[in-house]
Amino acid sequence: MAPPPVTLRTRRLRLRPLVRADVPALVAALDDYDVSKWLTVVPYPYGEADALAFLDHQKGAAPLAALGIFDDQGFAGVIGAADGLGYWLGRAHHGKGYMREAAAAVVARFFASSDAAALTSGYFEGNAASARVLAGLGFVADGQDRVMSRAQRAEVVLNRVILHRAEWQARHAG
Question: What is the CATH number of the domain that holds 111?
Fold first, then answer.
């Protein structure tokens, strides 16, 4: 039996599982090279078939694996924590502090609902905004890898980071 879906609320955002009705918004946001170039497995151009395949892949996944991020205006991006923390925002939502807010909620739920000692993530070399989000949450450097970016059709440097449960708890004690 699949675990129940997760919905999280923050001061400005609602995070919930994605549904078929979200496909047009997913496509509109990810069919933007300035968004997709920072992601490992997302192709560019990005179409409806890609979004439907992503939704199919999420069926039966862990409850935090992929949550849509919604503000008062609608769809803003996607965040998930399963094998690691991954996320993206549509370009119109950059610079509003949404990702830090959404990521803090997901990381808190991740540690509250698992016995994992740490959570990993990463960002491509040159993605200063993502580096700031992760550092602000307490993630620290854990090495580098060369990975393939489907959108860029090239190998890129991925800066690996890690957040230990003890560090998260120390930051949020009280």
Answer: 3.40.630.30
What dihedral do alpha carbons 145, 170, 63, 130 form, nearest 10°? Answer: -40
Span 67-122, pLDDT tens digits: 999 999 999 999 999 889 999 999 999 999 999 999 999 999 999 999 999 999 99
Pairing type for strands 118-124 and 154-164 reads antiparallel
Q: How far apart are the first and last CA of the chain?
A: 35
In a domain, 63, yes or no: yes
pTM of the model as a whole: 0.95
The overall longest dimension of the chain from CA atoms, in Å, is 46
Q: Report whether 134 contacts 167 (CB < 8 A).
A: no
